[in-house]
């Protein structure tokens, strides 16, 4: 009977695995841990590569607190959508296994890169540190504190950009005590902040900053700032915070390291101060989070893999718009002003044009580039990014330009602000409207109207009132 029961459980597990992984072709094992292994996978339909973490539920449940750690990692990754944070695409479970389909990062760990080069140049170290701070500060903005930042938990992709991973020890707002502080002592000994060791409560943001400082020290110097085989001696060194900072580092790099590796958290530099520091600011371009409206990065739910469309010659670069979507653009149907402080017209503008989509995209790209922004083409949209508040107050700026087809020779162009200053967004829209032949934008309220050139010599454009497309998702409850 026992053997039969085991066989039935095994068969059920195989069926669950097939249901989830039927769309994937599993490959080599990328790594193994206490709870299972990570395998390379290729999505059969798109050819995209992923990493599938396969956890043994029996092992997870046998270790005290391990189930909470897995739940926490899944819940945390569901909330995050940033270029410097590993993405969770899909989760499923059987009676015996838990499957997590993750972004595939094939450049290895930051630890391996440092070990191979002994140490990094200040230029390379600064670029990676800027990305690390962008990713960590984004997490903090979402109420997520990593609490185990170290080079082994920072991955490098094929383009040389970092991806923060392993959120099993992360803390969320519900983990804060009544005093607003965290109280669980966790992390890796060489990277843990002194206040975490004192068991008096600590600020998760400042403790993560300390760990980032240790990572920066290792990148630039090539060894740990605090190290000893004896844990008592190691913790004494961390409490003192007396790191030996080489004089051959640039003065600004030395200054930043001292301010981060300050043992008193009240005197330690914070995220905002790091971002305006002289050494950090050099060649710094803030990385904006993914656009919340993107189907493949929308927050609030465990996501299925998006069927990607290759941009082969002849593929359409627009979405067709049906009558219901067109009706939904009417400002009289827009109720978002009842719920949101920022008006819709302050973050979304639409206009019609008879120009071909390619010409529209090309002109918008030229306008944005000449205005000092960076432009990326992604399927049927342009992503305009940059620093909208100047070098002393860097804030990510993201505007998406998308084209919808109303008919064979009529299109709707939408300019949507996802992040950044509204005044900068208005200036950009003014510039684009001018370059596209729209004479003037009159006002920016809900009753605003615009005029367009009526010349038969050039395509006509009309501004449309717009609404906010709101999508509500329900996070998947991962039951162990």
How many distinct beta strands? 16
Class from secondary-structure proportions: alpha+beta
**Biggest pleated sheet:** 7 strands, mixed
Run of helices and strands: HEEEHHEEHHEEHHHHHHEHEHEEEEHEEE
CATH class of the largest domain: Mainly Alpha
Strand content: 15-25%
- What is the average per-residue confidence, as pLDDT, rounded to a whole number? 76
Short description:
GO terms for molecular function: ATP binding; protein serine kinase activity; protein serine/threonine kinase activity. Its cofactor is Mn(2+). By secondary structure, this protein is α+β, with helices and mostly antiparallel strands.
Structural features, described:
- By secondary structure, the chain is an alpha+beta fold.
- It has three domains: 2-103, 2-Layer Sandwich (Phosphorylase Kinase, domain 1); 110-281, Transferase(Phosphotransferase) domain 1 (Transferase(Phosphotransferase), domain 1, Orthogonal Bundle), CATH 1.10.510; 319-464, TATA-Binding Protein (2-Layer Sandwich).
- Helices cover 32% and strands 20% of the residues.
- Strands 8, 9, 10, 11, 12, 13 and 16 form a seven-stranded mixed sheet that branches. The chain has a five-stranded antiparallel sheet with strand order 1-2-3-5-4, sandwiched between helices.
- A hairpin with a 6-residue loop joins strand 14 and strand 15.
- The radius of gyration is 25 Å and the shape is globular.
- It catalyses: L-seryl-[protein] + ATP = O-phospho-L-seryl-[protein] + ADP + H(+); L-threonyl-[protein] + ATP = O-phospho-L-threonyl-[protein] + ADP + H(+).
- Residues 316-340 form the NAF domain.
- Belongs to the protein kinase superfamily. CAMK Ser/Thr protein kinase family. SNF1 subfamily.
């Amino acid at each position: 009977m026992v053997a039969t029961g085991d066989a039935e459980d095994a068969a059920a597990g195989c069926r669950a695995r097939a249901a989830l992984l039927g769309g994937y072709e599993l490959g080599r094992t990328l790594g193994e841990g206490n709870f299972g292994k990570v395998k390379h996978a290729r999505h059969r339909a798109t050819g995209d590569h992923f990493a599938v973490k396969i956890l043994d539920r029996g092992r997870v449940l046998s270790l005290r607190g391990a189930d909470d750690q897995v739940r926490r990692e899944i819940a945390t990754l569901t909330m995050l959508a940033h270029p410097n944070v590993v993405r969770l695409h899909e989760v499923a479970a059987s009676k015996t296994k838990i499957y997590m389909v993750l972004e595939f990062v094939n450049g290895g760990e930051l630890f391996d890169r440092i070990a191979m080069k002994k140490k990094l140049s200040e230029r390379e170290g600064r670029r990676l540190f800027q990305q690390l701070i962008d990713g960590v500060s984004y997490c903090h903005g979402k109420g997520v504190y990593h609490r185990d930042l170290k080079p082994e938990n920072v991955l490098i992709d094929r383009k040389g950009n970092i991806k923060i991973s392993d959120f099993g020890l992360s803390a969320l707002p519900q983990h804060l005590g009544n005093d607003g502080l965290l109280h669980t002592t966790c992390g890796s000994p060489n990277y843990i902040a002194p206040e975490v060791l004192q068991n008096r409560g600590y600020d998760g943001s400042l403790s993560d900053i300390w760990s980032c400082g240790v990572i920066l020290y290792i990148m630039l110097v090539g060894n740990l700032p605090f190290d000893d085989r004896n844990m008592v001696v190691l913790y004494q060194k961390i409490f003192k915070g007396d790191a030996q900072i080489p004089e051959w580092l640039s003065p600004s790099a030395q200054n930043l390291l001292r301010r981060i590796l300050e043992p008193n958290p009240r005197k330690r530099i914070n995220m905002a101060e790091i971002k305006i520091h002289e050494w950090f600011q050099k060649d710094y371009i803030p990385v904006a989070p993914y656009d919340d409206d993107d189907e493949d990065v929308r927050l609030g739910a465990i996501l299925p893999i998006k069927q990607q469309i290759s941009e082969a010659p002849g593929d359409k670069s627009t979405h067709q718009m049906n009558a219901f979507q067109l009706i939904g653009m009417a400002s009289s149907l827009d109720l978002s002003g009842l719920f949101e402080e920022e008006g819709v017209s302050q973050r979304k503008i639409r206009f019609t044009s008879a120009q071909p989509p390619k010409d529209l995209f090309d002109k918008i790209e030229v306008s944005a580039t000449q205005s000092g922004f960076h432009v990326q083409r992604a399927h049927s949209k342009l992503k305009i990014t940059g620093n909208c508040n100047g070098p002393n107050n860097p804030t990510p700026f993201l505007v998406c330009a998308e084209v919808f087809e109303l008919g064979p020779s009529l299109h709707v162009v939408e300019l949507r602000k996802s992040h950044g200053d509204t005044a900068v967004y208005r200036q950009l829209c003014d510039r684009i409207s001018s370059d596209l032949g729209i004479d003037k934008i009159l006002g920016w309220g809900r009753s605003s109207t615009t005029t367009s050139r009526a010349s038969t010599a050039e395509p006509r454009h009309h501004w449309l009132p717009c609404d906010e497309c709101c999508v509500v998702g329900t996070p998947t409850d991962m039951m162990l």
